[in-house]
Design brief:
about 120 residues, three-stranded antiparallel beta sheet, 5 helices, 3 strands, globular
């Protein structure tokens, strides 16, 4: 991660996992190792370019591990690191909060499949 001055730990944390897609990528990796194509199917709204960028950024900060196998055709898998696994309970709380908020405010979610998993 590039040297940057932060005002607080929350700012550091949100800089690492913030944005539209990083949390969804982490959520998709919640149940284990996934290949790029599997991640793309789980998050259909993300472009391939953006998925690759998000995975690289998460790998750079040590939240996601990229596993490349020396085979032809190339095989690459992604999984959460120990630090990435520590984020899952936090993301689960955020998911549950969103679900509760939707119920309280009568917000319809057409299909929680966009959430990748339940």
């Amino acid at each position: 991660m590039e040297a940057k001055n932060y005002n607080c730990f929350f700012q550091l944390a949100t800089d690492m996992i913030g944005g539209k897609w990083k949390a969804m990528v982490l959520w998709a990796l919640k149940k284990g190792v996934k290949r790029n194509g599997e991640l793309k199917k789980l998050i259909p709204q993300i472009s391939q370019k953006m998925l690759t960028q998000q995975l690289r950024e998460l790998e750079e900060v040590g939240i996601v591990q990229r596993i490349a196998y020396p085979v032809i055709p190339p095989k690459v898998e992604y999984k959460l690191t120990k630090n990435g696994e520590k984020l899952i309970p936090i993301l689960q709380e955020l998911h549950d909060w969103g679900k509760e908020y939707a119920k309280e405010h009568d917000i319809s979610i057409t299909k929680d499949a966009n959430c990748v998993i339940e």
